[in-house]
Amino acid sequence: MRQIFKLALVISFVVLPVKALQEKVINGNVFRTGTYEDVIDDFKKRVGPREVITFIGYSGRGYEREDKMLKMAEKFLKTKDPKGTVVNIGVTPEGIGAIYPLAKEMGFETFGIVSTQASEYLDGVSNVDNPYLVEDKAWGGYIDASKKELTPTSKAMVDVSNMMIAYGAGDVGLAELEQGIANGVKVKAYLFDENHQKSTAKALKSGKPAPKIFYLPAFKKFVIKLNSSLRKTDSIKKRRNSRNELTRSKSVSGF
To answer: What pLDDT does residue 39 have?
Structure first.
């Protein structure tokens, strides 16, 4: 009986080894691959107390006005200290990934999270100091939109972020933004057109008619709703500050 007790005690203290991230070097970039849990754990350890700014946007289809997108990104990043901030995007260099070289030039350490579905498309990756591949059966977005359940990749993108900034978005990006707001992440979103030529060519190649609009209608609704909410919040803050100032003024004057 005593031996059985000792055996049970030993078993109770057995700790299963943590599965380490697998590393693979592609064109000089060390990609770390693992589960959602492994990736965000390693990501957060490397970031430490620094703020994580995640940029959301178009990838392969690019931007009709990439110059405008980059100017907006540069203007925003100038408000941040590279010593206390890191930039996170979706690893690949196309579209929103054009912010990577900009961020590097400005002195930011760069991170990236993408699904293992992108494993065959990583040869052109550059300017990403810490690229991660999340084990995922999908590219991202919702597993079940009715339950607002994200795929492992999209969940990781949201859960490492302190702020998310979207310059346009497809279905995957929109899902991440929605859950970012639900999780209390600060979100800013701006409407941008996809590259017209690339979007038209892709549609025609798949047998669809040429698009008449070059953004996701649901994202436009999201931007309008978000900006309306932010205006209301700012208005409430201004009224509250005004009341507080009036109260202080009365207190000082003795009335």
So the answer is: 98
